[in-house]
Each structure stands twice: as structure tokens, then as C-alpha cells.
Specification:
The structure holds 2 protein chains of 2 kinds. Chain A is α+β, with helices and mostly antiparallel strands. Chain A has 9 helices and 23 strands. The longest helix of chain B has 22 residues. Chain B folds into 2 domains: 93 residues; 84 residues, Winged helix-like DNA-binding domain superfamily/Winged helix DNA-binding domain (Arc Repressor Mutant, subunit A, Orthogonal Bundle). Chain B is mainly alpha-helical. Classes of the chains: A alpha+beta, B mainly alpha. The interface between A and B is large, with 42 and 55 residues.
């Protein structure tokens, strides 16, 4: 143990930053507890120092999430404007030089008019996904315009041109900006909300809570490729000329026209899965050597499970597809699933976190249906009637104990 | 390589995810610190916004830092001072920012109808702490800053932050040590709080 503490007075302890961190946050608890146990004569000093530190606690002033986001909106807008003007300035400077140069070249000649188009390539990954836990669902259009989706279960419909977007039956957006080839729109749905989307090719997507779908506002090119994080159910419009591809973190699913459910969550460390309801799909893991492996074909009522640890895909036949798709009807069905799985799926719909002691038997199996229209209270009551557990709600945390 | 350094560099190069990371990491602490100078949430939110506007504007021209919170607190204080001066251009300008924080204990004792003598003397000695001492204590005990950083934020000479804290602690210790000889239940309520 560090010798310096031998000479420490109460004041020295109370002023020591590491000691303060221990008292306030439990940092390095082991070190301090050993020090206390090995040197009983310190006890009094340490206790007094602790009391002083606790007495010096300053209460926090309340500031809400929404206020934090309101200011963030402004900061974000300022960032956007700032970077836009910077780009413009650079462009003007460049244009000036170019004009002088052209002028010199073209005395007596006709100066062609040159249009510059800005590269509109957008970075999606880092920022948008990092904030997808925000309690706000939103649609981001190809040009970067953001539209907040207010309904808990929003509906979006793109017309064939990708220019007219109907939102929740009542509002219609007419998009006049030029749609560049492959410019992407994005729908972000936080936990506790959902969205049904009709893409410009007529494909229907039920986007589950806590998921993000990125897709071309209008499909062009030889494939229809969309990107998914989280879980979605696809009903793909048939077009044999132009296959539909869903790309998630771990999987690539290729279809011609069919219905299937895909789940590839970042917070599920074990697996990603695809369940086929109708038609045919082929899929491929995205691991390093995946291109060397054969494509896997799924038949209806088959489930492909991709294991994230050994990067292999296994197929299970004759699964009851309702277990995997009932969420889009607002029901969760479980057949001999562990309570842990039930909690994991519930947390997505109610935007809560379950916290439990190890001793609670979370491996106990649960079979039954849960109606997601019910309030969290009601669902938890059902759970605690079915299993020997009690649940206590505190904010968005749920503490689970055994009965 | 320090993590803060890296994030800061990314932010200077215009990385938006670094900006949002810094913002959400530090909004609350900046707000809590600011509100002690002027108890007006709207005003403080404006100041935070100004700080970020300035940072974005400066971009590549910003200096380096390995402690973003410290950097932001410094900027926050400047921003509050400027905004206060701007708002009361017509009135007499006092150059001093008053740090008006009450400790939880003070409030509790004040609300108590039959506070003991010891509690009264504790609250008395806390009341005697100057604004500066309160600010130093806040930066040290809530924000866990090094003395050198505290001195820089508060424009103090090298060793004075440490001395000021030590002096305050000593006074408190004398009262609290006394408490141990005549235990008063009051303090045990607090020990329960940090057990969580």
C-alpha cells in the first residue's frame, strides 16, 4: 500500500482526488477497502473525511432531455450552415481563378457554361446511428431534410417517383429537389416506436422499434439495395429483372419477390436471423471469407440463424413463423423462450432496461402471448403472475427480483 | 494517446460525430456549473449554445487539449461573463461573477425545525464560505478537477486553490470531529446516501 497515506490527516484524505472519487463514485473501491482493513487506525480519519465530502455535496438543478435536444438542434444547424458556407467560399475562390484562366484562354472564343454539382455523398453511419436512441422517430430525405415522425406507429408512403411522400395519412410532402442517383433516404425509429414504410417500388417494410432503414428514395440501377440495422419485416414487390437486397451488419439477403423477417441487432451479441414466410431468398454472411462460401437458399417456414461468434449460418426447418413476425401486429408470441429473451424483446417496445440479480431464474421458460397495446405495468403484471418474479419500475429501468 | 485529445482533434477537423459526442457528454456538467452563476436556465442554455457556436467557428484554429471538460468550463465562464455584461450594458458593470451554490446539507438544516446546536454550527461555518471557496469546492468535489486546472479557470495563483480548500475542510473537520464525540443521527442519513 502506498506509504504516503500513513502521514495523511483527515484533511489530506478529504482533499485527495482519488479518495473523493471513491467516496462519490466507488472508483478503486478495492484499493481503499484494503487500505481501511489493513490499517484499522485509519478508520476514524476515513469516516470523518467521508462525512466532510458528503456534506460538501451540491444539489443538481433539473434540466430535461428535451431541453438538451432543443439546444443541440441549434448547435447542429449552426454546424451545417458553417460547413456549407465554408464549402461555398472555397468554391467561389476556385470559380474566380477558373474564370480568369478561362478568360485568358478564350479571348474571342465562346466560353462554355460549366455546371458544377456538389458531391452529395452523405455519411450515415457514425452520427445518425449513434443518436438513434433519441426518443424521436424521424425521416431524413435524400437532401438531408429531417422530418420528425410524431405518431407512435408512423406510416410512410413513397410514390413511384420518390417525390411525393405521404406521412400518417394526413400530410403529404412534395419533394422538389433533384434526386441524385442512389441518394439515400433514412428512417430512424427509436425504442418504443414503430414505422410502416411503403418504398417507391411498392415494397412494404414494417420497421421495428430501435431500428434504422436506409434506402434509395427512388430505386435506380440493377438491384434494389437497402440497409438495415435492427429488425424489419419485408413484403417485397416482385421484379425478376431487379433483385431486392437487404444488407445488415452481418448478412446480405437477396430476394426477387417474397415475404420475410430479418433481425440483426447490434445489442444481440449472439445471433442474427432471417425467417422466410413466402417465396424464396438466398443469403450470405458478411464475414471475411463469406464470398467463398455458398449462398444459402431458404424455403418458406425456414429460419436461418447466423452465429456472430463462429460466423456460421444454420438453417432450421418447419419453424412457427408467427413467433418471429407477430410483432408487426402488436403481439409478442413466445414458445418456451427464456425469460431473459422475453425481457430483451420487451425492452425494445417499451424503451426500458431490465436489471436483475443473478439469482433470479431468468432461464425459466415462458410460453404465451403478450399484447403490446397493453401498458408496461400490465405486461409486467402478466409476467410476474406467470413467473416467480417481481418487477419494480424506476424511470426507464425495471428492477427484477425473485418473489 | 489520450482519448480526449483524439476526440478533440476529430472535432477540429469538422467531424460531426465528435461534435455530438462532446455535446452530449458535457451539456449537463456545463449547465450545472453555469447555473451556479446565474439562476436562469434559459440564459445558461444560451451561453452553452454560444460556446459551441464559437468552437465550431474556430474549427482548425482551436488549440489542443487533453481535458475537454476543463476547456469547456473555461469557455463557459467567459461566455457567461460576456453575456452578463452585454445584458446590462446600461447598468453598472460588476466584473465579478458570484458563484451562488448551496450545499444540500445547508438546505436540509435550514428546513429542519429543531436543528441541534452542532447542526447549526455546521450550517454557520458553511455559510461563512466565500463564493470563491464554494466555486473551488464545487470544481474539486463535483467535477473532480486538478488544483492547477481550478486555478486556471478562476485566475488564481498556483497554490491558492489548494490552500483555500484545505482551510475550508479544516473548519468543517473541527465541527464534524466534535460530532463523533457526540454522535448525532443526522450524519448517518448521509452515509446511507452514498452507499447507493
Amino acid at each position: 500500500m502506498e506509504k504516503k497515506y500513513n502521514k495523511y490527516s483527515v484533511e489530506d484524505f478529504a482533499c485527495d482526488l482519488n479518495f473523493i472519487k471513491w467516496v462519490k463514485k466507488g472508483t478503486d473501491a478495492k484499493k481503499w477497502e484494503t487500505l481501511q482493513n489493513e490499517n484499522p487506525h485509519f478508520s476514524n480519519k476515513i469516516e470523518t473525511a467521508k462525512k466532510i465530502i458528503t456534506a460538501l455535496h451540491t444539489p443538481e438543478t433539473y434540466v430535461g432531455q428535451d431541453e438538451t435536444y432543443a439546444v443541440w438542434k441549434n448547435v447542429e444547424l449552426f454546424y451545417k450552415l458553417h460547413h456549407q458556407t465554408n464549402r461555398k467560399k472555397r468554391f467561389i475562390k476556385f470559380a474566380q481563378y477558373a474564370a480568369i484562366f478561362l478568360l485568358a484562354l478564350s479571348i474571342g472564343a465562346v466560353i462554355p457554361i460549366i455546371y458544377f454539382t456538389q458531391n452529395n455523398h452523405r455519411e450515415y453511419r457514425a452520427f445518425e446511428l449513434a443518436t438513434s436512441n433519441k426518443p424521436e422517430a424521424k425521416l431524413i430525405l435524400a437532401g438531408g431534410e429531417e422530418i420528425i415522425l410524431k405518431e407512435k406507429q408512423s406510416e410512410l408512403q413513397f410514390d413511384t417517383s420518390g417525390r411525393q411522400i405521404r406521412i400518417d395519412q394526413d400530410s403529404v410532402i412534395n419533394y422538389r429537389e433533384k434526386i441524385e442517383q442512389n441518394s439515400m433516404a433514412q428512417v430512424i425509429v427509436p425504442f418504443g416506436m414503430r414505422s410502416d414504410i411503403c418504398l417507391s417500388d411498392g415494397t412494404k417494410v414494417w420497421l421495428n422499434a430501435g431500428s434504422t432503414l436506409t434506402f434509395p428514395q427512388k430505386f435506380t440501377g440493377k438491384t434494389r439495395k437497402v440497409f438495415l440495422k435492427g429488425e424489419a419485416y419485408f413484403d417485397v414487390t416482385k421484379n425478376t429483372e431487379c433483385p431486392f437486397v437487404v444488407s445488415s451488419d452481418n448478412l446480405n439477403v437477396r430476394v426477387l419477390g417474397t415475404e420475410f423477417n430479418i433481425r440483426d441487432d447490434e445489442y444481440d451479441n449472439e445471433s442474427a436471423e432471417v425467417v422466410l414466410i413466402e417465396g424464396a431468398v438466398s443469403l450470405r454472411g458478411k464475414g471475411m471469407f463469406s464470398l467463398l462460401r455458398d449462398e444459402l437458399r431458404l424455403k418458406p417456414n425456414q429460419k436461418a440463424t447466423y452465429s456472430k461468434s463462429d460466423k456460421k449460418t444454420t438453417v432450421e426447418s418447419g419453424v412457427k413463423v408467427e413467433y418471429y413476425t407477430s410483432w408487426k401486429e402488436g403481439l409478442l408470441e413466445f414458445n418456451k423462450e427464456s425469460i431473459l429473451t422475453v425481457f430483451n424483446r420487451l425492452s425494445r417496445f417499451y424503451n426500458v432496461r431490465f436489471i436483475s440479480e443473478k439469482s433470479v431464474g431468468l432461464n425459466r421458460q415462458f410460453t404465451g402471448k403478450l399484447d403490446l397495446e397493453k401498458t408496461l405495468d400490465e405486461v409486467l403484471k402478466i409476467m410476474s403472475d406467470a413467473a416467480p418474479i417481481t418487477c419494480r419500475i424506476e424511470g426507464n429501468k425495471i428492477f427484477v427480483n425473485s418473489k | 494517446m489520450n482519448n480526449d485529445c483524439e476526440i478533440w482533434e476529430n472535432f477540429k477537423n469538422g467531424d460531426k460525430s465528435a461534435l455530438s459526442f462532446i455535446y452530449f457528454q458535457h451539456f449537463r456538467p456545463m449547465f450545472q456549473y453555469g447555473i451556479k452563476f446565474k439562476n436562469d436556465p434559459e440564459f445558461i442554455k444560451d451561453c452553452i449554445q454560444d460556446v459551441f457556436f464559437k468552437l465550431i467557428k474556430a474549427g482548425k484554429n482551436l488549440g489542443t487539449t487533453n481535458n475537454i471538460r476543463f476547456y469547456l468550463f473555461k469557455s463557459m465562464k467567459t461566455s457567461i461573463l460576456k453575456k452578463i455584461e452585454k445584458d446590462r450594458r446600461m447598468e453598472e458593470i460588476g466584473n465579478d461573477l458570484k458563484f451562488e451554490a448551496q450545499f444540500s446539507v445547508e438546505e436540509e438544516i435550514a428546513e429542519k425545525e429543531n436543528a441541534t446546536e452542532k447542526e447549526k454550527s455546521l450550517s454557520q461555518s458553511l455559510k461563512k464560505l466565500s463564493d470563491r471557496q464554494r466555486e473551488i469546492i464545487y470544481l474539486r468535489y463535483e467535477c473532480e478537477m486538478e488544483y492547477s486546472q481550478i486555478c486556471e479557470i478562476m485566475h488564481l495563483k498556483n497554490d491558492s486553490a489548494r490552500k483555500l480548500v484545505f482551510r475550508a475542510i479544516k473548519t468543517l473537520r473541527e465541527i464534524i470531529d466534535d460530532e463523533i464525540k457526540f454522535p448525532v443521527l443526522f450524519f448517518f442519513r448521509f452515509s446511507a446516501k452514498y452507499a447507493l
